[in-house]
């Protein structure tokens, strides 16, 4: 039971990291990034390959994973700088699909659909499984707290103020002399770097990564977590991700309540619940549980 | 994916975009629903392919209208991006509804197996030719609907200028429903055509989503003739990519096409509206 709870907390922490990363790009910068699963994958595969094949120590592999995800984020931001709204959603979702396609097909690199197993974890060989889970929980939540504190600080900075201005009206920010492209690129690099970190934490804890765990549902989960908590506030991202974890774990027991359902049916119901809750939240409380403190003045009805 | 086959769901996507002004990601799951509807008609009821295709259109159209009314229409006033995100969620719900009923196992249609036709150094499967003909007939029917019927003309009017259309007393909600029925019905029709070529399972539609987007963006979001042109270009591009890339990377062609198009001509080949 302790092991189950510890691993639950690690996965919750990973979700919080992903939500924090998306909050920089989407919450502050107003740029939708449906390519989250792709950056998560980049971080996970980079960390796994560097530590397993090249024998890099885990912290170094983790840093490299953050760097690679941030670098690709920079490229994607530069390429999509002129797009917004549903156009950006299209391109970023396509990016994630291409990453998944590469992971599934380049057997020499990613071992194809079989995935990579046996990825080293911190002191995994000397600890008992229970100790390992607890250590990972502590490390993961240590990273969560560091990221949360840093990003909360960042959200108060002039940098974040420019991002919010761009979110509300890019033209105004540009007229005020802000180099919009440069801000977009930095926000994207920062946010996708955090997503890569989440992937790295995942793979060193889980020991295994395969392309089928990288589908659009992973991205949707995070979008839901952030919407639930409230976009723009870092605390909202944390609360939302924790609530989501409670929801997905709670629905795991649906099969016990209704024994007539097959495992596939239970799995499909759980996925459908995620989608349903997201639509309900968008409808009933689009600003989330913890809305951003400074909302824009509503001079005209929402467009 | 063959251009003619791809054109059908791409037209559906663009027809919905033209009238309702948001990218409906749920087209993938609606296409899957069409594939399952057609498959049920074909194998369980023993219908031939053509009536099964009509069943795919009707079931997907009705399912699309109902799902949109329940999930997306109340959100449209909150903006295109919110609706788009909700449509991703709706797609997941519909995909899992299909999975709940039918499970994950791949299925195939009841088809007679034919020898390929050969000639002029080419060969083609009769099934592919039949699919292409069905796709072209569906497109022709849509063009007739848009050009000659009152509902079709009003749809074009709303797509062209919603403000003017509402001044003329056109009921935008009703036209939205018609656009959804026709557009998502076509997505279902296309989903069955895709399934005839591949297989029927809960991800049938999702696998071609990137190609559908690519066709729609290359042709111009919201442009019906654009979607046809885009689909043929993407179809040809995916085939040509086999010369330089392994077959598994066909899907990436669509992404590259989207990136190139949006970088150089965001409005698409035949679209007027830029982002």
Outline:
With 303 residues, chain A is mostly helical.
Overview of this structure, please?
The complex is a heterodimer of chains A (303) and B (275). Chain A is mostly helical. Chain A has helices at residues 2-28, 36-52, 58-79, 85-105, 107-110, 129-155, 158-168, 170-175, 180-206, 216-229, 234-251, 254-257, 263-284, and strands at 116-117, 208-209. Helix content of chain A is 73%, strand content 1%. Chain A has a two-stranded antiparallel sheet. The relative contact order of chain A is 0.18. Chain B has one domain (3-108, 117-205). Chain B has helices at residues 3-20, 27-44, 49-72, 80-102, 126-148, 150-160, 162-167, 172-197, 204-207, 209-219, 224-240, 250-264; strands at 117-119, 122-124. A two-stranded antiparallel ribbon of chain B has the order 1-2. In chain B, a hairpin with a 2-residue loop joins strand 1 and strand 2. The two termini of chain B are 27 Å apart. The model of chain B has no long low-confidence stretch (mean pLDDT 89). Chains A and B meet through helix 4, helix 10 and helix 13 of A and helix 4, helix 10 and helix 12 of B.
Count of extended strands of chain A: 2
- Rg of chain A: 19 Å
Q: What order do the SSEs of chain A take from the amino end to the carboxyl end, as H and E?
A: HHHHHEHHHHEHHHH
Summarize the largest interface: chains and residue counts. Answer: A-B, 46 and 48 residues
Q: What is the beta-strand fraction of chain A?
A: under 5%
Number of helices of chain B: 12
Low-confidence stretches of chain A: none
Mean pLDDT rating of chain A? 88
Given helix and strand content, the structural type of chain B is mainly alpha
From the N-terminal CA to the C-terminal CA of chain A, the straight-line distance is 49 Å
Note poorly predicted spans of chain B: none
Q: What's the main sheet of chain A like?
A: 2 strands, antiparallel
Strand content of chain B: under 5%
The largest β sheet of chain B comes out as: 2 strands, antiparallel
Order of helices and strands of chain B: HHHHEEHHHHHHHH
Describe the strand arrangement of the main beta sheet of chain A, using strand numbers: 1-2
